[in-house]
Amino acid sequence: MQVDSVAYANAYYAAIDPNNERDTLAKFKAKNGFGTAGAGITEETIIIGDQRDLGYGRKMTARRDSNTGNIAFVVENYMVGGYGGYSTFSLQAAIVGENKWHLGTNAIEFSVVESGASNPTPNAIKFVKLYTYDPITGARLTAANLDGRGNKALPTICISCHGGRGDPLTPSGLFPRISNSASGARGDVGAQLHAFEPASFDFSTLSGYTRAALEGKIKTINQMVLCGHNLPNGTATPTGFAEDTCRRVANPNEYQGAAAAHLKNIYGGNGLPNASSETTDSYVPTSWTAAGQVDLYKKTVTQACRVCHGIRGTGNQSDINFEDFTAFDGYADRIRAHVVDRGNMPLAKLVYDKHWSTPDMYNTMANYLSTKGFSGGAIKPGRAVADPGPDRVVKTLTPALSAGMSLFSTSYSWTVTSVPGGQTASLSSSTAANPTLTVSGPGTYTVQLVTANATSTSTAKTLTLEVNPALAWDPAALRFNPDIRTVLQQGINGNCISCHVSGQNISTTSGVPPIYYDDFDRAGTGNGADATNRSWLYTEVRGRINFTDIVASPLLRKPSGNHHNGGLRTGFNTSAAVGDAARTDYDKFVAWILNGAPE
């Protein structure tokens, strides 16, 4: 996977640090002035136990220069006893600075990017940049192992919780640019700074490291964090509150979620009147209360989801921040897939283990999922899950089948369950992972897949195939250029290009998406419609495909009306039968993806 590669990390660092002024921890500290005093400089250090996230003992130093508005953090991570749990010994190791238990150092900078090959003419908009360093040599690293699940490349491992996008590199190897970002810079992934919630930390009883001793410092650091969060678009300035004077007003398309409001609430709201923090675990958004889902929010979302999801989303689409219950409810199928089937959420191992070892957490989620028609929500991931792939239109009388997207499965059982009148169908094998179905003629056929492993058997999953030898387009012959590109750029009633088009003023126009589909000059060749630029467009579009769970691809979910600012687009109505004209473009996209999404 490209976003988890050394090349991806190197392209990221080349974009955010073009002159290698931060390629060691010592140089990062020097560049940001750590340890030096001066007018307008604030620097604080705290040492806490991160008992509800990654389980580290953490020594955090935060610094803000009010003269430039730059903010920087250096975080030393210590762990005693292995990943997946929290021990007070990790906190003690951080206090004494025991190198034996020092796993690594992360660093964050909120600043303007310097000019370089990736960003020849950057503007003055600051954004979050993410780094990690070797605990012994201080050399900058391209990957880190944060929770014992193996090394993962920068910045992907960071944006999984700090928010943002992990789009593919350009064909020339440059880090991608988010089309609607205020900075317009390569390397601006849209990440956000996290608030520090003392109620979620463990504190030492040693003098100078108690909660009482550190509350004032944490509040100062949180005021720095607040400076990194934009004021919502349309906010009249000055707001009348001192803590907002350092905050820029967001354009209509940027993140402007509830994280800043939550941070303020920790200290009593606007003006931050309280010297010490208040617990936020009792907070429940009004929409969750109205829906009768207080338990789900407090027992599961607050404990396992909110820290990361709270800083996700944009001004266009913030459903994934889980602040609104209706938006959360719209993700029920994906929550089931990620939490129960795949087991890749909650993301951090400590939180994942806590979720599945705490009946109040997993049973509350299971009860909710049962109301959406999903059973088995209290069973820890690892059971067999059958997935024969998306329903599809085929032209051939010998379509290939695949159980390749099934989960935790080692054996397979296929059955033909329905055949059109007067037709026949047979499988080349009923137990192979990738059999061939042979049919005698056109019509709608269904097959069923059941998978198993040593300890479980899946529920049956049905696949519908619409066989049409007279189909005007050949699924096996579809290519991005021109077939898929034509749908994106023209389609039915100008489907996508009406919004996904360059040249919009992102400062004043709302609803500007993060990717454009028109032929603008991406590669700087002078001709946006030439082969080079269309190859760049292909790369961007391919990045919106999930090959391990095809129906979850944003390229399919968005135009079919799932969490899409543009709603349901013509030709993508998945409530229509496979092969129906109302879903022609959806069926084309599925066929192209199943064929490997060739250019």
UniProtKB/TrEMBL annotation:
Signal peptide: none annotated. One of its GO terms (molecular function) is heme binding. Coiled coil: none annotated. Keywords: Heme, Iron, Metal-binding. PROSITE patterns: CYTC. Residues 476-597 form the Cytochrome c domain. Gene3D superfamilies: Immunoglobulins. This is Cytochrome c domain-containing protein.
